[in-house]
Design goal:
Belongs to the iron-sulfur cluster assembly SufBD family. This is Fe-S cluster assembly protein SufD. The chain is mainly beta and 392 residues long. The chain folds into two domains: 333 residues, no CATH class; 54 residues, no CATH class. It has four helices and 16 strands. It has a 16-stranded mixed β-sheet that branches.
């Protein structure tokens, strides 16, 4: 996409981040498929794998990983919600989208039983659906479907903790007029590996909001994707990540506008500290020829707190029609602002407290999008703990 697609004031930064305008990240090495055999074993030279440390995926990418572990799963939901364990032949599986890389296909080919969580039409939940997944070591594969009927409203919190190697697919299917907020928290132990594809199918006039929070894990690679099933759909994708010593955290997003008069907004922010901390953000937005009236924007901001950390930030826009409301993107990465720190310290704020306030301020806008006090408090406490550890 040419520079003129950028809105006034949008910036890209290449001094610390790698920022590029191209369409190559939307071109996968193989078409989407449920069959792992349709995907070649990646070698790291492919566009969708060039940032990922394949040797740290514990065999998820080459077929050597076998289900050998356990995960403790607990679901708490209001009585009106149906929770089912189903077989691979259930027709509700795969409706939101197919796997787009070999790991996601491996996950789909390897799970034994899937979970389907259904919110009936017109039901408005007053309490969140809470899903707790606690890794107990070894390798596990999973598949979960969350389905909202027409005009239903729900909040879902998915919490990942513990240790292990996890590959999974998660589907969100929204009926017409439905409203869904999903908060996915990755708070794994430092040795865990987690790869997951999130597929959302947004119905006519439906609203989907995703908040992805990533802290833990040795390698975390998430692939949120949005498609629209009817005009008037809205999708908001927010993300916060804090990448520490040696961690690799990768978020690869695709919003596929193939339906008229739909809207999307993407905003991800990350902070990094420590030697070999590596964050990757790929934001792809595809506006197809039929998607007239589209309004979309994507933003990535990164704050580098120490030397030795690296960010790769790649926003991509591909537009096939000129009949749109708006489309733009922005990416910027900067170091910790010593002037802000000095300003606070000159007014009597201790250095550690000043540093905490600056980082909290950086994340404040996205923290507010969570909308759940307990999750917000936990997130802020985790940020404080990460900062304290860096100065200990």
């Amino acid at each position: 996409m040419a520079d003129q697609s950028l809105p006034a004031g949008a910036t890209t930064s290449g001094s610390i981040a790698v920022a590029a305008e191209s369409t190559v990240a939307t071109r996968m090495s193989a078409p989407p498929s449920f069959d792992v055999a349709d995907f070649p074993v990646p070698h790291g030279r492919e566009e969708e794998w060039r940032f990922t440390p394949l040797e740290r995926l514990r065999g998820l990418h080459d077929g050597t990983a076998e289900a050998s572990g356990g995960i403790k799963a607990e679901i708490s939901a209001p009585d009106v919600v149906t929770v089912e364990t189903v077989g691979r032949d259930d027709s509700r599986l795969g409706r939101a989208g197919k796997p787009v890389d070999r790991v996601a296909a491996q996950a789909y080919s390897s799970f034994e039983r899937a979970t389907v969580v259904t919110v009936p039409k017109e039901a408005v939940l007053t309490e969140p659906v809470r899903v707790s997944l606690h890794g107990q070591g070894g390798t596990t594969f999973g598949h979960t479907v969350f389905e909202l009927g027409a005009f239903a409203e729900a909040v879902i919190v998915i919490d990942h903790t513990g240790d292990g190697v996890r590959a999974a697919n998660v589907e969100y299917v929204l009926g017409d007029g439905a409203k869904l907020t999903v908060v996915s928290v990755q708070d794994w132990d430092d040795t865990a590996v987690h790869c997951s594809q999130h597929n959302a199918l947004v119905g006519r006039d439906a609203t989907f909001k995703s908040v992805v929070i990533t802290f833990g894990g040795d390698v975390v690679r998430l692939h949120p994707r949005v498609n629209y099933a009817g005009p008037g759909g809205e999708a908001e994708l927010y993300g916060l990540f804090f990448t520490d010593n040696g961690q690799h955290q990768e978020h690869r997003l695709l919003v596929d506008h193939d339906t008229p008069n739909c809207r999307s907004n993407v905003a991800y922010k990350g902070a990094l500290q420590g030697q070999d901390a590596h964050a990757v953000w790929i934001g792809d937005v595809l506006i197809r020829k039929a998607a007239t009236g589209t309004d979309t924007y994507e933003l990535n901001r990164n704050l580098v707190l120490t030397d030795g950390a690296r960010v790769d930030s790649v926003p991509n826009l591909e537009i096939e029609t000129g009949e749109i409301v708006g489309a733009g993107h922005a990416s910027a990465t900067g170091r910790f602002d010593d002037e802000q720190l000095f300003y606070l310290m000159s007014r009597g704020v201790p250095a550690d407290e000043a540093r905490r306030l600056v980082v909290r301020g950086f994340f404040a806008e996205l923290v507010q999008q969570i909308g759940l006090a307990d999750v917000q408090e936990r997130l802020l406490a985790k940020i404080d703990a990460e900062l304290e550890a860096s100065v200990a």
